[in-house]
Amino acid sequence: MKAWSRLAIEFQALGRHADAAGAFHKVLELDPELPGAQYVLGRSLAQLRQTDEAAKLLSVVRDGSDRPIDPVLRAKARIQLKRLSRTRTLATSSWIRR
């Protein structure tokens, strides 16, 4: 699991978000409730404009699960969800103007 996590983080750092998402999916296959992996996968999916799936994952991190979640990670998820919300609003606004 650590190898997949490291690989996913490296992919994300290189801007290879599709590869990062694939690697984080592997991590979550091994441990489906891992908040850190859910958060970073959510960020990669947001970069890939898969906003619905990104929002679902980030909401799980923000709202919690059966496991304790680091408050800083919760706050980061909340911030990412606000950014996604703004992005969706801007996309809708520019579509309406056309």
Give a brief rundown of this model.
The chain has 98 residues and is mainly alpha-helical. It has helices at residues 2-13, 17-30, 35-47, 51-63, 71-97.
3D structure, described in words:
With 98 residues, this protein is mostly helical. Helix content is 81%, strand content 0%. The protein has five helices and no strands. Helix 1 packs antiparallel against helix 2 and helix 4 (51-63) packs antiparallel against helix 5 (71-97). The longest helix has 27 residues, at 71-97. It starts with a helix and ends with a helix. Mean pLDDT is 88; it is low at 93-98.
- Major beta sheet summary: none
Number of strands: 0
Low-confidence stretches: 93-98
Number of helices in the DSSP assignment: 5
Q: Structural class per helix/strand content?
A: mainly alpha
| Oligomeric state of shown chains | single chain
For the residues shown, what is the average pLDDT? Answer: 88
Shape, per Cα inertia axes: globular
Core attributes:
98 residues; disordered C terminus; mainly alpha; 0% strand
Give the helices and strands, then pairings.
Blueprint lengths: L1 H12 L3 H14 L4 H13 L3 H13 L7 H27 L1
Helix pairs in contact: 1-2, 2-3, 3-4, 3-5, 4-5
